[in-house]
Amino acid sequence: MNTLDWVVIVAYLAGTLAVGVWFSQRAGRSVADFFASGRSLPWWLAGTSMAATTFSVDTPLYVTGLVARRGIAGNWEWWAFGISHVLMIYLFARLWRRSNVLTDIELTELRYGGQSAALLRGVRAFIFAVPINTIGMGYVLLAMRKVIEALGIWDAVQLDLPGEPRFWIVVGISVLVLIYAGLAGLWGVVVTDFFQFILALLGALLVVGFALPDVGGIAGIKLTLVETGLGDRLDFFPWSQVAQLSMTTFLAYLGIQWWAFRASDGGGIFIQRFISSKTEDDAAKAAWLFNVLHYLVRTWPWIVVALVALILYPGLADPEIGYIRLMLDYLPAGLLGLVAASFLAAFMSTVSTQINWGASYVVNDLYGRWLRPDASEHELVWVGRISSVAMVALAATAAFFAQDIGTVFRFMIAIGTGPGAVLILRWFWWRVNAVAELAAMLAGMLIAVLSYLPAFAGMDFGLRLAVTAFGSAAIWVPTMLLAKPEQPETLERFYRRTRPGGPGWRRQREATGLEPLQDLAADLQSSFWGIALLFAMMLGVGWLVFGIWAKAAATLAAASFFFYRLRRIGRRIEDVASP
């Protein structure tokens, strides 16, 4: 990297920190401003922020390593979440906005009652704010550490500090993002997310544009991979006998992962955007925008770069570094700095969100709920900032010791599998109780951790998901049925606030005299066609990129039909709602 590259990076950092200072006063006015943007986010800002949060510095590296090891089909590891991400558009986004809670965990004591609800809220807040969130931040910090090491930034700075360089790298980037996130609150996070997403996407496109011609374009990629015996890496599905992704794991992704994972009804970071949206419609539109940006817009630039890296750098000990090697070898001065800044943008958008999200649990669901219920708004905001420092310190420790991004990502999926079915059912069935949710969460985590013991080292990942999901179900289902139902007044309070649809709330409908604000049958139909539309568009664009014209045409034609069906349902609902 030369002087021009450094100028670009410093200019980006100065601009981002300026945004943090600009929004610091607004964020400090109240807890709602700091953690929920005063519930005034427009849909386009909320949706782009969701996409920026999931476009972190680790994701291009993760996809590069994934494609090298498992081919394009390996991306079903994260593509499968598209099912739950479409469901959140129609089933959950409006419900979350209507709940008017500050965090998703606060819903615990709205949906359940008594000591079991209070215990569940406290346990969930601690687990998600501390181990789950800090490990999640840790592998993002790990990715940033890899980028800085590979770009030679540390060597260029030439600081003579004791200990390992990677320790000081982690400390430096942790302090940087902590200052920005601690000042800005959610308003600063989402505003910078908008620009960071554009910059991060531009960075990926620049790497594609400069490196792709050197392998003969898309045609050269296909020809070279077939000639070198790596043609299976081009398969979109693991049908072939030499597929790098096992059929068991593929079926577990599509059949289990989306409903068993802890984010089945949205997930804390997305829910924070729904809660912060101006209206219920803004929340639903934000969810759709996220799906378009996440699955249609940025999937294929990452995959093309990964395949180019696989060809140009075969046999890398750490294939995740292939992306960085392409940047160093192909980008001219200035543009290298711009793409390096895009990595910083992706990193900061994700970690700043996770800091703000985790701190919201500490403030709202631990400190404000248990320690100081009468704390002032000013005190709570400062507790949020102090807890941010502690979480970043723990995340930095995780990043120092971790080595492989993909391994950590799969571990996070495994320990989060189990409670998803309960999180979905609690919205639509009155019989779900607090002890069932607590049992599902703890059982899933325990089974997943046990499955990583040396005795199960060779277990297929799909089998691990199945054992975790159904093993936890074998515990939480009888626990739910043996425990007492929630009190009628608790259930009626929840129903009055959220008004979900379906037969599961018939008793509460009759007791309150209030009709649901959700047409569950129509929303399920919309979800079905929406899922079909999303995957048809994603695969159709992919086949278009790789010049597989017949499949692209057929899939995009099917997508047109799915869109037509989706719009028909929407128009029917509008007609019924009209006077």
Strand content: under 5%
What is the residue-averaged pLDDT?
A: 86
Order of SSEs, N→C? Answer: HHHHHHHHHHHHHHHHHHHHHHHHHH
- The strand count comes to 0
Structural class: mainly alpha
CATH architecture designation of the largest domain:
Up-down Bundle
What is the alpha-carbon Rg in Å? 24 Å
Distance between the termini: 64 Å
How many domains, as an integer?
Answer: 2
Shape: globular
Q: What about the largest sheet?
A: none
State the CATH class of the largest domain: Mainly Alpha
Could you tell me the CATH topology label of the largest domain: Sodium/glucose cotransporter
Q: Tell me the name of the CATH homologous superfamily of the largest domain.
A: Sodium/glucose cotransporter
What is this structure's SSE topology?
Layout: H1 3-27, H2 31-36, H3 43-54, H4 58-70, H5 76-79, H6 82-99, H7 108-111, H8 114-151, H9 153-157, H10 165-211, H11 217-227, H12 247-260, H13 268-276, H14 280-297, H15 299-312, H16 322-330, H17 335-371, H18 377-401, H19 405-415, H20 420-428, H21 434-450, H22 461-482, H23 488-498, H24 506-512, H25 520-545, H26 549-577
Helix pairs in contact: 1-10, 1-17, 3-10, 3-13, 3-14, 3-17, 4-15, 6-13, 6-14, 6-25, 8-10, 8-17, 8-18, 8-19, 8-21, 10-15, 10-17, 10-18, 11-15, 12-22, 13-14, 14-25, 15-16, 17-18, 21-22, 23-24, 25-26
